[in-house]
């Protein structure tokens, strides 16, 4: 179980680094020369994206492994987690080395040298065998078992797709290359979401004491709908790519099925509001509920982006960034923090600590909402500029955003310090709390 704690510490450290690099990257908006600052923007951006991206992935794996230790008293193949952790350490070290030495591959979200992807793939293969060895000891699987299994399985499949570009057949065909690149990024997020949403459901069964909720038909219906979207709704990422119209039409239809999830969340809000009063002071529950509200907000934005007429105007603007921030911080990070509080933080906190964490919690929620709102404003302004007949140059357009950019940087800085306070508290607790193993 100690290895799982180290996985969680590793994830928290990467999330902290991701926000730090993101803060430095936001400062770059003040410069007219992209090479100014502590590090140039083209280095800071992948450092920010990769740190946050892999912090989320490792955090999800840490949450699942901690849950498995709780579910199975005699956990099988637990020593394999040490190899899993070691492979991640090798890979992340190599990725950072690539960025600092500017050894880029040219991919949008996987800019590092592809050699460092091999340890990631092997780590997931090991984790797949690890969870199957334990889950197959039970005949009746709750929905979150299926989410964990299919999330890892699809991650491996999509991860292999992600590196088809190294073969000339795909690399030399611009349309195929771009289609695969954008398809992969959407699908990998969906695969990781299966891990995190499954863990969120597991947490709710633990907190409520009602394990049957994970066996209900509605739980499996929502699981299959999420899996269906993981496999097919990525097409709205490539509306602008001249691929088969059938892919665009199918992806649009699949994306619109997410309205079912959105409506279900809205209908459940009343019940959640009454439950939140009961569990308000329990931080794991509070972060789980925060992720639910962010799912509603972000899903609404995602559904709008899935409409071709809207996507045409928003593609390549800060509205897409707002959607990514809502997913990464509002949903994924909230679930990971819920797991970290549940397994790491002491159940009873002194008054000062509780007040401090409560303040930081509400600061994060408020600042994140404002941060995303400002990004949407910046995106709308860029979209208007792109599709107008004005002779205004890009640099002139950027200058017109000077006040908005200052607000963006200030909000991002405050959000960074607020989240850093929570992450540093959890990292500290992970070292001073006695292991439950």
Provide an overview of this structure:
With 437 residues, the protein is mainly alpha-helical. Helices cover 77% and strands 0% of the residues. The protein contains 16 helices and no strands. The chain has helices at residues 2-27, 41-71, 80-100, 117-135, 143-162, 168-171, 174-208, 217-232, 245-256, 258-279, 283-305, 308-314, 318-343, 351-386, 394-400, 402-432. The chain is globular. The model has no long low-confidence stretch (mean pLDDT 86).
Helix content: over 70%
Question: How many strands appear in the DSSP assignment?
Answer: 0
Taking the sheet with the most strands, its summary is: none
Structural class: mainly alpha
Cα-based radius of gyration, to the nearest Å: 21 Å
Question: What is the CA-CA span between the terminal residues?
Answer: 6 Å
Give me the strand/helix succession.
Answer: HHHHHHHHHHHHHHHH
Mean pLDDT: 86
Beta-strand residue fraction: under 5%
Indicate the topology:
Elements lengths: L1 H26 L13 H31 L8 H21 L16 H19 L7 H20 L5 H4 L2 H35 L8 H16 L12 H12 L1 H22 L3 H23 L2 H7 L3 H26 L7 H36 L7 H7 L1 H31 L5
Helix pairs in contact: 1-2, 1-16, 2-3, 2-7, 2-13, 3-4, 4-5, 5-7, 5-8, 7-8, 7-13, 10-11, 11-13, 13-14, 14-16
């Amino acid at each position: 179980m100690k290895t799982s704690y180290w996985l969680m510490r590793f994830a928290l450290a990467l999330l902290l680094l991701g926000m730090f690099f993101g803060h430095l990257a936001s400062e770059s908006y003040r410069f007219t020369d992209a090479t100014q600052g502590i590090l140039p923007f083209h280095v800071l951006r992948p450092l920010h994206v990769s740190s946050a991206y892999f912090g989320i992935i490792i955090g999800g794996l840490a949450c699942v492994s901690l849950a498995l230790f709780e579910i199975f008293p005699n956990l099988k193949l637990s020593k394999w987690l040490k190899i899993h952790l070691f492979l991640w350490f090798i890979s992340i070290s190599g990725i950072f080395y690539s960025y600092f030495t500017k050894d880029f591959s040219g991919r949008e979200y996987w800019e590092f040298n592809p050699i460092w992807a091999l340890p990631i793939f092997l780590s997931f293969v090991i984790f797949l065998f690890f969870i199957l060895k334990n889950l197959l000891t039970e005949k009746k699987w709750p929905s979150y078992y299926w989410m964990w299994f299919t999330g890892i399985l699809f991650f491996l499949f999509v991860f292999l797709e992600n590196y088809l570009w190294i073969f000339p057949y795909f690399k030399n065909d611009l349309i195929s290359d771009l289609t695969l690149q954008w398809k992969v990024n959407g699908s990998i997020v969906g695969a990781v979401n299966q891990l995190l949403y499954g863990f969120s459901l597991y947490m709710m069964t633990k907190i409520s004491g009602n394990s049957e909720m994970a066996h209900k038909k509605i739980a499996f219906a929502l699981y299959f709908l999420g899996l269906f979207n993981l496999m097919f709704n990525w097409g709205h990422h490539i509306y602008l790519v001249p691929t088969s119209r059938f892919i665009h039409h199918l992806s649009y239809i699949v994306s619109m099925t997410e309205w079912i999830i959105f409506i279900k969340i809205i209908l459940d809000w009343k019940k959640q509001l009454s439950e939140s009063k009961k569990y308000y002071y329990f931080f794991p529950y509070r972060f789980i509920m925060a992720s639910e509200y962010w799912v509603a907000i972000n899903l609404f934005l995602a559904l709008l982006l899935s409409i071709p007429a809207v996507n045409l105007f928003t593609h390549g603007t800060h509205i897409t960034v707002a959607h990514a921030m809502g997913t990464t911080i509002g949903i994924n990070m909230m679930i990971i923090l819920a797991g970290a509080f549940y397994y790491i933080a002491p159940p009873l906190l002194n008054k000062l600590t509780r007040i401090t964490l409560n303040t930081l919690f509400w600061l994060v929620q408020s600042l994140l909402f404002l941060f995303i709102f400002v990004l949407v404003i910046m995106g709308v302004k860029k979209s208007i500029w792109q599709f107008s007949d004005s002779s205004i140059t890009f640099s002139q357009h950027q200058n017109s955003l000077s006040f908005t950019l200052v607000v963006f940087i200030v909000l991002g800085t405050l959000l960074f310090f607020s989240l850093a306070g929570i992450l540093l508290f959890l990292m500290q607790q992970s070292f001073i709390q006695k292991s439950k193993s």
